[in-house]
Backbone:
């Protein structure tokens, strides 16, 4: 018996019934089947994140594309900027970091900044999130850092970092890091990381 020649033999790929090959693109398949997987990116040529999903037709959630792995979306503002006492949630001169979610769904976030007391007096700084379409001051999570009683030559630097889940976000929702100062505080190395849990 002769051995088949790979150069001349027709090879036919066999897919499991009901499961389509892995899709890759800036949108998810519009007519998925149960168990289908797809990778969502923001660019086909230079993506900043890659999110892999599996479609769960039996899910009771509106969001049936369930996240199973990939690289989170991240944004960093390296500019160090100081603000005096400002008893309200504000943007700094260089706003953000900020990220707009590409699809409706449930997301997890990690955010934070380095805080530096720029005077010898006590000062408090806060880092929070501003979410478009959300009420109650538009701040969902706050993380206080108090830099108290420092000498001018022994100023306090601390890291504020928080994580949490944001559910039921609409497509295009803006997630933005915002600031609240009870004293002269400088904010540095501001970061935001967003990971989906499940999307529509």
Residues:
């Amino acid at each position: 018996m002769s051995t088949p020649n790979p150069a001349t033999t027709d090879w036919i790929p066999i897919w499991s019934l009901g499961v389509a090959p892995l899709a890759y693109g800036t949108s998810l398949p519009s007519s998925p089947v149960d168990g289908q997987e797809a990778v969502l990116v923001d660019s086909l040529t230079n993506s900043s994140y890659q999110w892999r999903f599996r479609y769960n037709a039996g899910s009771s959630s509106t969001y049936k594309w369930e996240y199973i792995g990939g690289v989170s979306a991240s944004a960093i503002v390296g500019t160090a900027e100081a603000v005096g006492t400002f008893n309200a949630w504000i943007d700094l001169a260089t706003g953000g970091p900020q990220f707009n979610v590409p699809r409706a769904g449930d997301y997890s976030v990690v955010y934070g900044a380095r805080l530096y007391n720029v005077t010898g007096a006590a000062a408090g700084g806060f880092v929070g999130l501003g979410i478009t379409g959300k009420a109650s001051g538009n701040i969902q999570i706050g993380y206080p850092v108090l830099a108290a009683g420092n000498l001018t030559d022994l100023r306090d630097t601390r890291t504020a970092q928080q994580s949490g889940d944001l559910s039921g976000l609409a497509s295009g929702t803006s997630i933005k890091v915002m600031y609240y100062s009870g004293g002269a505080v400088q904010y540095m190395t501001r970061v935001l990381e967003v990971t989906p849990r499940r999307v529509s």
